[in-house]
User: Fold these one by one.
Assistant:
Number 1:
Amino acid sequence: MTDSSNGPALTRRAAYEARLRRRSALIAAGSSAVIVLAIVILVPLAPGWTAVKKSFFNAEVFARTFPGLLQAFLMDIAIFAWCAPLIAIMGLAIALCRDVRNPVLFPLRAFGALYTDIFRGLPVILVIYLIGFGIPGLGLPRPWNSPYIWGSLALIVVYAAYVAEVIRSGIDSIHQSQRAAAQSLGLSEADTMRYVVLPQALRNVVPANMNLFIALQKDVALLSFIGPVEIFRQAGVYKSLMANFTPYVGAALIFLAITIPATRYADYLMSRQRGRR
Amino acid sequence: MKTQTLCAATLAATLAAGSAMAASHADCAAGKTLTDGVLTIATGNPAYYPWVADDKPQSGKGFEAATAYAIAAEMGFDAGSVKWVRTSFDEAIQPGAKNFDFNMQQFSITPEREQMVDFSLPYYTSAMAVLTTNAVVANGVEPTVASLKGVIWGADANTTAVPMLMQIVGPEKDPLLYNDNADVTAAIQAGQIDAALFDLPTALYLAAVLVDDGTVLGQFPADRSENPDQFGLLMEEGNPLKECVDAAITSLTDSGALAEIEAKWLQEATGVPIIE
């Protein structure tokens, strides 16, 4: 009866727990402070620190190059914006291919499996070179040989393979009994997929797909290998002209400004989903 | 007795002075190299003709390989005391200890780079040249700045060709940039770019060997540019060897030896039309 934590006086147990919490908070703050101090004091003591500071954290170079980097980042955003929806559509199509149960359509199923095996197994940069230089090399006329088109396609086919696998795991997570129930109600196989399985499956895999899109946002920079001057390439040009790596640090900060909020959002979605279950 | 001693002393002094003259460059480098008695020189990976023949700098063939051995000899290192290593551009400019005494791979001297690393006196001043294909030329592209503004340009992102392109030509469409010569070549072959800007010797080599149907449309001569593309040896900032290298390059330039090496390896550079 006296065991109420809302009461004015703390019970002995509550007081003990509060003391414990205070103590661990103090220890955590203390150990963090020690680590931060050690980094702040010890790193500048290293003999090469002035040289490293001059070539990676050069304020003058940073100020000169940052506006150009921001400008170039618009290119990354544009490429991301047109790739992401196409990846979602193609990933879904491949996932559905892999779930086909009609024996006549077995070739589709085999295609889905082969597709994911190949494109998940290849390094992205190889696919970008192969599609970005190879297909236009076959003799396509302008503007159809643009590196923007074929480089984007390379990103799309690779990322669609990953997204397809994620969606398939979502589809597999819906219990077989739900399909049986839907069919007993008279739904066709296609309707079962559309109205019963997919709505649940897609909701389950939203956090996993968020992670893929964060990865895509960084891999857009790989398109610079076949010509487009996006932020990574622009930073490389500045690096070369000034023999200084600071522009890369600037580019990294711009990337982080996008990816950290996106990662936190994915975490939030995931924990909300756990809460619902 | 006295005059005799005096004579002997004078003779000895003269001899000493003479040998000091011959050995002055050699003494200069003593104790300043990475390994005593060995001169470590870095080149690219791979190193391209005509700078280094067959990617084998130790053969002494190719303009930069031959120049490197001439500089080494001037500094008192015989051919056996020269060691070659390979670095990328990024390795050459990274902070911290270097694994070379000097790095020789067509590094252009710029004031911005000069703040981070040391450059020797220039050993070559290059014209810039337009690499393209005969098919593009057949489409009506002419060696005039006005005509060149309208084409789609490419360049190696790691070179000073990028600002030169913007400055000299000022293309209407944004140029596409690549990691190395091989990628620029692939883009020309795929028809994604019409033309690319390189230093003249590199452009001639690419047109002759790597690009199918390739040609050098024309050149922007170095003496007409406000900041001509001058190549220097790259060294760690504050490297004490710099004065010895500079002395060696000065004496090679004055004696005409450098011009001879240039004539031997880069002679075809004449005869390319000049872009007005």
Number 2:
Amino acid sequence: MSCQLASDSILYANGIYRLVYEIVGVVLPCWVAYAIAGLVFAFILVNAVLLGAAVITWGERRVLGRFQNRVGPNRWGPFGLFQPVADLVKLLTKEDLRPEGSDRVVFSLVPVLMVAPLILMTAVVPFAKNTALASLNVGVLFILAVSSITSVAIFMAGWSSNNRYAMFGAARAVAVLISYEIPVVLSLLGVVMVAASMSLGTIVAAQALPFFLVQPLAFFVFMAGMSAELNRSPFDVAEAESEIIAGYHTEYSGVRFALIQAAEFGGVGVVAAIAATLFLGGWSGPWSEYLGWLWFLIKTGIIVFLFIWFRATYPRLRIDQIMAFSWKFLLPLAMVNLVVVTLEVFLLRGDEGVLTHTDLAIMAAINLAVTAISIAVFGNLIKDRVTFRTRQPQQVVVPGVSTIEVS
Amino acid sequence: MTIRTEPMTVNVGPQHPSTHGVFRVRITFDGEDIVEVEPVFGYLHRGTEKLAEERNYVQVVTLTDRLDYTSSMINNQAYCLAVEKLLGVEPPPRARYLRTLTAELQRIASHLIAVGFFVQELGAFGTPLMYGFRSRERILELFEMLCGARITVSYMRPGGVFADAPRDFWPALNRFLEDFEDEFAEMEQLLLENEILMIRTRGVSPIPPEVAINNSVSGPVLRASGVNWDWRKQEPYDAYDQVEFDVPIGSNWDNYDRFWVRIQEVRQSIRIIKQCIAQIEPGPVRLDLPLVLRPEAGREAYGRVEASKGELGFYLVSDGGISPYRCKIRSPSLINLTVIERLLVGWKLADMIVSLGSIDINMGEVDR
């Protein structure tokens, strides 16, 4: 007797899952097969995220090195590829320090709480055709909801550390994360509207034209917002090294620090994967039946490279400027995108409620113009407001000093 | 319900990535705003002034290297000028040109570090800093050709310089200048008009000229406050009366101006070096002074230069012995630090780091 998944199950579309389930189901009871197949896929996902994080730490250091006229790690393994392993071994052998006066439970819980949402987020990302663990019909909503857990974890880290720098970092992080969630959600609404679905698989299928062309404004807002949510430059106030040492994770060391780092770099990978899925067409490309995973990896790599590029290039903004950037610039842009896309979808949609390739091309043309205009307009509007407390110089003549020249 | 808030005191330093060594400030914050500042220093005190009293006049040169270790050539120069004043001698012209040239190279190296760390503190992760270090490395290699050392050079001696430049120094210097102008133009292009850099530094922490003068501030910080005061112009020493250069003056007195003045001074330094190369002529590089100098008893002298961070002065008193009776060092970093309260109070935590970077302190010099 073999087990069969119900065809309306959210796991049905996943080929790998179904295969394992059916093979195991031949010899074991169905509920055991169900659990084993789930564990197999979860094992793959967890390792994919953590390995991805390791590769990204290596890639970031190599690429940053090239940006900065340096070589970067190149000693261990080919091109220094085993450097993350060496780092991990070093961190695992470190003493596990917990500062005096810290809240033991909360302090220890943080690394787990930082890594878990990332792995959860990958559950709905299709790596290739029909490979999402769960092709949830509310995938986008699920990602947004789960990613918010990180802000709680960061605040817990700052609060429990009993360190003032950590407290600074946590307060900043919460302010930034909450402010940037709103433009990100609004920018994703446009995507959802065009694809007419919240399922990531359907969104990929709807991208006859990649959405970063159809909605450049949404892509811009999403990338800026995600830079802030990941605490990456130029919005990395929460762990601003030159200001508050390491921000919320100042007191973390050893294996806990390793997990936080994994969460940070894994976060870059996962967010890049989501951006590739939502805006760059995910696994679609030539021969996507067989090479879908390759297109997906290439597109994710491009986004990761973009994030590293930002980090190598931009100075950091001040906290008030970051807030102003979110509320006065990104939020209006996301609103403009939402309104324009709503109108376009309303006007262009055919009787079956489907947008054709031509419709998407028309939208792309309009939205490109809207993007240029709105960025220019709102950029000019906030230009003078972002600068904080600018004082006008006064002419001062100092008595007794003849050589003074105030130009 | 009222929410109770209270100010928070944080010890920034002595172990902090951005306090330029072991500087410590006790800062009271109200949220992110600074309400009270209390600088604490002395962690790097090595008793240089006292050590100088136990070494002979030539040996003290090695102590000066370790004051501001990013501009040791200029420290050598200030001390040597003081000893020469004490002795009443003048070094030969070639030595004066060599001193001017190396001091300007050192100024470039020091300003590259200052600008690099300034932008690093703004949060640009390493890139401008590494660009600066790329050029600084070439300068240190030139110093190595001159005297065998890169940082603690001890190249200058009372009465001239330690040795003439080797023959392959001049082509190497020319190659460096050619490359450096491009490299520096690249850096200027990346930084000077950088939007984020400008909104972070424009109008932040201005020091009005009267405050700067009352606090005896000197160097790029003073010039950024709009005061045209440069010892190379006011009281030319060595070959500075033979070369032409401009003194950049800030108009907004803020962090951006302090950064801008340094960038411009690097350009002026290149001008000075080029003129030195054109004007320098063969000749002796060191006066024939006795190995152990014994200035007349009771004489005192104050030698000063425009160092990369401000006015660096050595006040020497002789009692006729082989070592100075008293050696007082007027270090620009320490005196420039006296505006710290004016600089920081009322601004945010993020600005504090940048403002500290903008006055470019060096703890080796502050604590001596």
